[in-house]
Amino acid sequence: MFSRAYKAAVTLPPLVWVTVFLLIPYLLMFCYSFWSVSESQAIVHSWNLVNYGDLLRVDVYWQTLLRSMWIAARVTIFSLLLGYPLAYFLSFSAGRKKDLLYQLVIIPLWVSYLVRAYAWKTILGSDGVLNTLLQYVHLTKHPLEFLLYSPFAVVLTLTHIYTPFAFLPIYAALEHIPRNLVEASHDLGATPGQTFWKVILPLSIPGVVAGATFAFVLSLGDFLAPLLLGGPSGIMISNIVVSLFGAAYNWPLGAAISFCMLLLVVSLLFFSERLEKKWSFS
Amino acid sequence: MELLVTDTKFGSGSRWLLLHALSVFAFLYLPIVILILYSFNREGVGGFPPHHLTLDWYRTLFADEAIWDSVLNSLQVAFAAVVISLTLGVPAALAVERAQFPGKAVFRRLVLLPLILPGIITGLSLSMLFKVIGTNTSLTTIILGHGTALISVATTEVFAGLQKLDRAQEEASLDLGANYWQTFWRITLPNLKLPIIGAALLIFTLSMDEIAVSFFLIGRDNTLPLEIWGRLRRGITPEINAVSTVIFVFSLVAIVLWYRLRMRAEGGADAGTEIAQAIEGDAA
User: Which residue of chain B has the CA closest to A187?
Assistant: First the structure.
């Protein structure tokens, strides 16, 4: 029913814009990753694989990448452990309060992410709320120093920030489970535990995969929480990229690292899409 | 009735679930409560128990011109980002739903990519583009960055709206002699009012809070998150608590307004859920 002119009119402007401001920049980053920096800090447009070689050769790069993945993995696990039972509770036991509680999960997302990370800093610091509280009630004599400037602080803060992101798709998946399947399982004599493990959990796997992907990918690329709360042992891969674009001034190497992150993220999305399709029942 | 059934079904387990839910809510709200509480604490941030309630930090905040300049900058950026991303996102959603063109699958994924890709990658690649074409970074480059990255939100929201739309109205309009342009303005767009307003609100708040993309595109003028960031690096200041509290209250008002608007118009999934489905599911 729509003419070719109509289709062209709605297609061309976004297509051109997205090409200029997304596709070309991503490709440009790919090009940069093969270039290098001269002594006088100019970009040399000669094509080689030196930057990718450095990535493998210099310990700090691949170690930081591995550490970032390990931090992101922990954030993912904790977000799922917090998010799944919460989603289950809302979907199956909250009754009429469901919508209100759902909004309550969303509302923290409206507080600036930066500000929430900073709030954790004020809680965990050595003069922070938690340490002074512990001393106030005489549980400890001296401030606990491991709380702030550690991978622990980064994992805690990122878990706080990404739990709602893990919760959302899980909740959506649970809400889509036909309730008569649950009833049927029950009527056929399954215990609540069996019903959960054999009916509800398998049907909610697509939501779990989506939530895990969100939590992992979003925390993997984070650079503010590590800078604010991580200390030297909590540095993540994006912090290295940031410093390569700032003080260290090596855009090509930064581009190579970024491109590896991009590949990692895109392949994760690809696999999670496969996984969801495999598990989806409709 | 349903509550009764679930209660007997899940028995003692549901008490643990309730306890778990309460703990998660406590975890999610603890930093926010602390933030608000300590914005009224004379001794500033940290230290238990808080005492000497005061409005001093709010007075300092209202006298602080740098912060208000950055708030104005952020508002400008957010408005412009809403305009850009909707101007391109609405046609993009129409294109994805109604047109076939070579590279459509790539186009769809590319539009959505900034939503899931770490902001730092999008910010970096855009700053490379501006460097290569010799544009200095400024609020304009931030606007272009936000506008582009948030087309994703506009497209997913409007696309979800389009799928619920009854095509018959548009067909009738065309049959009765209206041209495509008139049909778009008089039928399609008014029917998409709700998703468009929802997208606008979401884009606005996301832009107000955006930092990773802005980080690489910043010129001389700061946006609010970058201003806060600069201060945090220098040390903890209670005005940050005060300004965050003010913004939180504004956000709450916006949520309540949006919620009532949505309730009145009835139904549909929540914005977050729709975006989750758009990224993860193969919607088109």
Answer: B9
Mean pLDDT estimate for chain B? 84
Tell me whether residue A13 is in a domain.
no
State chain A's maximal CA–CA distance in angstroms.
77
Interface check A108 vs B, CB under 8 A: yes
CA distance A88 to chain B (A): 8
Question: Do B237 and B267 share a domain, yes or no?
Answer: yes
Same domain, B118 and B247: yes
ipTM of the complex: 0.89
**Whether B125 and B222 share a structural domain:** yes
Is the whole model's pTM more than 0.80, yes or no?
yes
Q: What is the CATH number of the domain that holds A97?
A: 1.10.3720.10
Residues B72 and B42 reside in one and the same domain: no
Smallest CA–CA distance, residue A59 to chain B, in Å, is 22
d(CA A146, CA A126) in angstroms, rounded, equals 9
**Chain Cα centroid distance, residue B261:** 17
Look up the domain containing B243 and give its range.
Answer: 65-280
CA distances from A208 to A52, A79, A161, B153 (A): 34, 10, 17, 22
Taking only the tens place, the pLDDT of each residue in B154-176 is 999 999 889 888 888 888 888 89
Count of domains forming chain B: 2
pLDDT reported for residue B48: 67
Best residue in A4, A7, A21, A78 to probe B by mutation, most B CBs within 10 Å? A21
CB pairs under 8 A between A and B: 282
Interface touch A119/B34, C-beta < 8 Å: yes
Q: Do B82 and B207 reside in the same domain of the chain?
A: yes
Q: Which residue of B has its CA nearest to A167?
A: B273
CA pair distance B192, B174, nearest whole angstrom = 18
CB contacts, 8 Å: B49 with chain A: 133, 136
The answer to whether position B1 is within a domain reads no
Number of domains within chain A: 1
Asked whether the beta carbons of residue A221 and residue B144 sit closer than 8 angstroms, the reply is no
Q: List the beta bridge partners of residue A147.
A: none
Cβ contacts of B216 on chain A, cutoff 8 Å: 245
Mark whether B19 and B118 lie in a shared domain: no
* CB within 8 Å: B28 and A160: yes
What Rg, from alpha-carbon coordinates, does chain A have?
24
The range of the structural domain enclosing residue A62 comes to 51-279
Q: Pick from A59, A54, A65: which is nearest to A240 by CA?
A: A65
CATH number at residue B127: 1.10.3720.10
How far apart, in whole angstroms, are the C-alpha atoms of residue A280 and residue A173? 10
Mutate to test the interface with A, among B120, B132, B274 (most CBs of A within 10 A): B120
> Does residue A46 fall inside a structural domain?
no
Nearest to B99 by CA among A13, A202, A28, A224: A13
Picking from B121, B167, B224 by the largest number of A CB atoms within 10 A of its own CB, the best residue to mutate is: B121
